Amino acid sequence: MATFQSGFAVQQVGQAVAIQVNRAMISPDALEGFGQTLDSLIATSEEPRIIVDLAGVEFLPTAMLGHLIAASTKLRRKDCRLRLVGVNEHIKGVLHVTKVRENFDIFETQDDAVTSFGKGADEG
Length: 124
Fold this sequence. Notes:
This protein is an alpha/beta fold. It contains four helices and six strands; from the N terminus they run E-E-E-H-E-H-E-H-E-H. The chain has one domain (about 5-115): STAS domain (Transcription Regulator spoIIAA, 2-Layer Sandwich).
């Protein structure tokens, strides 16, 4: 069952947690809640398995990018990686230009991202 917040929904998907982001994420309150949710998921698990679905996002707000980078850093300290799905060409370009693309595993579908957690080593 999904938990809906302003701008995103959190749902357990197998052994992972998926955060589905939508266009309402532009508001400062939604962005703050998104960052807090990521922090909480990372802090409360020894081996967090987090997927962020950006299919509903046309352009990546700077604050959201900051939250994704911070989450990636915290996950690396736990030998984990953040999975992204639904990444459009614009967002891929932003990740490339800001030189943070290598911080994320990007998958075409949520199922592919969930399956990747069962491979043992983080790959993508």
